[in-house]
Amino acid sequence: MKILALAEQRDNKLKKSAFEVVRTARTIADQTGGEVIALVIGDHVQAIAGELGGYGAAKILAVEQPKLGKYSATAYAKIIAETAKKEQTDILLLPATAMGRDSAPRVAVKLDAGLASDCIALKVDNGTIIATRPVYAGKALSEIKINSAVKVFTLRPNVFPAGTSNGSAAKVEVLDIPLAESDFASLVIETAQASGKVDVAEADIIVSGGRGMKGPENFTIIENLAGVLGGAVGASRAVVDAGWRPHNEQVGQTGKTVSPSLYIAVAISGAIQHLAGMSSSKYIVAINKDKDAPIFQIADYGIVADALDIVPALTLEMKKLLGK
Amino acid sequence: MKLAVCINHVPDTAAKITLAQDGKNIDKTGVTFVLNPYDEYAIEECLRLKEKNTGEVIAISLGGDSHKETLRKALAMGVDKAVLLKDDSPRDSFAVARALADYLKGISADIIFFGKQSVDSDNAAVGTMVAEMLGLPSVSVVVKLEIADGMVTAEREIEGGKEKVQTRLPAVFSAQKGLNEPRYPSLKGIMSAKSKPIEEVVPSPSQVKAEVLIMRKPPSKNAGKIVGTDVSAVPELVRLLHEEAKVI
User: Fold this and answer.
1) Residue B122 and residue A272: Cβ atoms within 8 Å?
2) Which numeric CATH code is attached to B2-201?
3) A2-184 is a CATH 3.30.70.1400 domain
4) What is the DSSP letter of B15?
5) Chain B hits for A303, Cβ within 8 Å
6) Which of A12, A55, A305, B145 shows a CA-CA span of 20 to 30 A to B173?
7) How much is the ipTM here?
8) Which tens digits make up the pLDDT trace of B41-99?
């Protein structure tokens, strides 16, 4: 079994998911006796790719040219598929990020491969990979076996452990995949990212607010708590639909499905479609003045009180603990 | 301008999901099925593009007869034509994409729209697969779309921000919430949708590459500890998170 692990970079920095994907490839290879090949695509990425050796990549490939500094669905998919063919890898692991979820379906078609998206676990059973993935936003889990010769999986960020580097740096080989102008049929021309802001889909701690916050102005206390904890701000569908918060913060079935270490649900009652999106969080804290709110049914710790009183006090107490 | 919008018929997001006897599917008994929420944005965008540029919007759905209900909703919203690719055999993303691509190949649409994902299988893969099968560019998770003289500038959502993508028509897009505000079907629309024909096409059978072995419920969480009922509970909550849960 040969595994190709796509290590995503942004602005020439490997993303956390890159280490998760390579480490997961290593874990599978250890069980099946296979080889792990890591692939980094971008502009001048050879220098940053070596680090992946410490996470279990025996071979590291870099495909680089100035135009690849920005994401192009068509070009990236071609590079990934061509590399898989060249290296004769039969398993491909990609991150289930905006980039990975956009390119994996193209790669699967190019390689006539089955695809399992947004997997939360991979196990090896008699030499076959069985993937677990949430369906219906997490209301159920599917176990998937891919029957085609080549198999493509995308891994949900923040779920698979990246572990720590063992310090070994592998040599990075620059691979030449010839690309024509027509391979850049679509191209990113501009990226706008809020600096220093953690996205809910990648956050390890999420503080979410619901309708019980009474108004958009009260979200400052949520932002403050998230800021102190180094986490992301989330929101329920009700407050997004009311226009209090942007849609990219929505957690739940028509928003993001998340599995952080800590999810603090503030003034969120816990509609079924919200619970589906966050109930796989490792620890859940609920703050709500309604003791019968469904959120308490799945919360590890709860405080039954007005969130507007509790949250500022919680922020203060956390500051003390963290020495901020 | 010819616009195609591929839509799905899925359990309402408020539905409770229970499993069927076979352990591979959900139990559909008593579950309300609706037009996939993201597909509403896709339909709306197609209707707006048609209103701006003239043309025709065709809605396509792959599934059994029950999908006619969702196709009628699309007709009620204002699409011109509805096509049912009649086949309710189990299919993975690849097999769904294959059936849609086979049909779409024959109609040469300028724009093909999808919802960013179906809220049942949540693979978010079919739209981009169809694009690859048809050799077309694509932009997924689109929150803003501008088209002028066949040139496209689309904004898609990424982690912590947005990216602006440039491409050309014909192209495939998938709609994210926020792209627009979908219209409600008018009474006139609902009435006329009832009598509009739905074309039926039988797609060729396709092999399933990603097979569902079992479906199960996630491990259930139990209600935990109520730490307190006022501000005095806060230090104890912090202690529990720090010492017991060790997440802080």
Assistant:
1) no
2) 3.40.50.620
3) no
4) P
5) 226-229, 233-234, 237
6) A12
7) 0.96
8) 999 999 999 999 999 999 999 999 999 999 999 999 999 999 999 999 999 999 999 99
